[in-house]
């Protein structure tokens, strides 16, 4: 039967399984284990080799942003998959428009054979007239389940049952999951946070103190207790608290012993995004569980928070600085953030977003640079390039060509070698796999040995194909160097005509600018910057044109000499 599928015997047969909590109400027939057994048996009986499972356990069919499904689609895009088999159409999804797009348009365009076993759908047999009706019925089932769940949700919420997970400081009671009890360790931290707020400490200060004392942040704490909560599972620094987390804790009325339901809502069963509900729609039940914070203390903290002077929100249409998204820290590689001096609104500057003192990051120095200084430096550097182009266009083009040829030749040779070796090994694996398939068909090797070896070959083949694709993409970039050179020259000519910097022109010319930390003191301060131009990366002018440095005397008594980095040939 596999003869109807793609001719490439090495392509993967994807066995896709999905189960959501709603589907679980139908019994064990839809369990992932049952689906796997059924699909594996079907594949073996119908001659589908080289099978691979893609599984989404606990994901709704109305949303296609599922890890297993997305991984399968990535492999489809890479050309690894030839056939997709599911138990029935509802396993693929319960949105009839999206499922119809995949089965009627996307899979055929990609040359994918699609099979839904229980629904007797096989794209190799041509169009199935009943498939669209099944898709509609599957969505109607999801819609009906959602309506029933929302109704039950509303009844439970109005009866005082907590609808959300317990906040940091509480946990579910072992004997009754619908009741919250105090988690002593976390509750101690919550009390400290409220006390520090009463003492006049700001959110950032509280967060810094907790980090210095090595107190696990809420997400890290829950994970240490084996509790699953939505959010990032991997955290570089589990002791790093954010001021927004502190602010959220200080505003959490549940710490007074209250239950607040319906604080958020979703628009429809297809859109799971939670939206903020107006306070008048909340349902509040007071003194349901033991309080961590006395109500008087909580109200006192709310008054302090209300008196806190907050920065005016940024205007939505406010223009960004020219160099936003272009400046990077030369030491840690993080972006430089744009700031306005609090006391003097005319002073604008950039600093490293990973600076340890300002943002509790890992970068040891601030990498401070004035916005007017970087604008002056870049403008003067571009003026120097423009003057060189105007004075001796042939020499300018020759220098660009020499750099491009030197870089491209070496990279092209290396990439071609890698592609040739990977392709040869791919062909070898195909031959070995075909021989192994024949030996298995003739009974020379067992099914278990065949599956083990076939899997090993397929893993290596996929790695090689990914390596070839990456190398080919890099070759295309190398081939565009000539076009990039002409584009770069054209952008320089634009600057010669305009003599002003604009966001569009900057992004045509510059890919990124690395800013080093200043060295020296007072009037002897120097700072090195490295401009990475688009298409050509760094570009060093001849020594007779590049020995000049720039002094930005932007503040009385403090001058900074900016040194453009010279790249050796």
Notes on the structure:
- Among the domains are: about 1-150, Rossmann fold, CATH 3.40.50; about 170-305, Hect, E3 ligase catalytic domain fold; about 395-470, no CATH class.
- It is built from 17 helices and 19 strands.
- It has helices at about 30-45, 65-75, 90, 95-110, 130-160, 185-200, 205-210, 220-225, 245-250, 295-305, 355-360, 370-390, 395-440, 445-480, 480-500, 505-510, 545, and strands spanning about 10-20, 50-55, 80-85, 115, 120, 170-175, 175-180, 260, 265, 275, 285, 325-330, 335-340, 350, 370, 510-515, 525-535, 550-555, 560-565.
- Strand 18 and strand 19 form a beta hairpin.
- It is flat, with a radius of gyration of 31 Å.
Spatial order of strands in the largest sheet:
2-1-3-4-5
- As a whole number of angstroms, the C-alpha radius of gyration is 31 Å
The CATH homologous superfamily of the domain at 2-149 corresponds to Resolvase, N-terminal catalytic domain
What percentage of the residues does DSSP assign to strands (E)?
15-25%
Structural class: alpha/beta
What is the helix fraction of residues, given as a range?
40-55%
Secondary structure: number of strands: 19
Number of helices: 17
Which CATH class of the domain at 2-149? Alpha Beta
Which stretches are poorly predicted, pLDDT < 50 over at least 5 residues?
Answer: 3-8, 24-28
Mean pLDDT: 80
